[in-house]
């Protein structure tokens, strides 16, 4: 018979916008020249995405530059939570039946 197993999954909250606000930086374009001074050359669009979306990949150089600009540590930018998910094991086998996850898109009305 099938049982339940727990998969240890990590959730990340990207805190860049909050750290910027604490330094009175409210425009994503404020970061472009500051990153450039530290050898990180990103377009305005790339910086906008970096601020408004949780990056899936981030270079260590960019992370170090952000920490220097905002006078913070990586722990101040990345909040990690453990999200345990129980999944049903397939009967007669050891592999779990993992539920499908649908990604949702949240659009801010002022950016439409």
Portion in beta strands? 15-25%
Class per helix and strand makeup: alpha+beta
What is the mean predicted local confidence, pLDDT? 84
**What's the β-strand tally?**
3
- List the uncertain runs: none
Radius of gyration over all CA atoms, rounded:
19 Å
Tally of contiguous helical segments = 5
Strand order of the largest sheet: 1-2-3
Give the biggest sheet.
3 strands, antiparallel
What descriptive keywords fit this protein?
alpha+beta; three-stranded antiparallel sheet; 5 helices; 112 residues; single chain; 434 Repressor (Amino-terminal Domain); elongated
Q: What features would you describe in this structure?
A:
There is one protein chain. By secondary structure, the chain is of the alpha+beta class. The protein has one domain (4-111): 434 Repressor (Amino-terminal Domain). 33% of the residues lie in helices and 22% in strands. It has 5 helices and 3 strands; from the N terminus they run E-H-H-H-H-H-E-E. It has helices at residues 16-22, 31-36, 44-52, 60-70, 74-77, and strands at residues 4-14, 78-89, 96-97. A 3-stranded antiparallel β-sheet has the order 1-2-3. The radius of gyration is 19 Å and the shape is elongated. The mean pLDDT is 84.
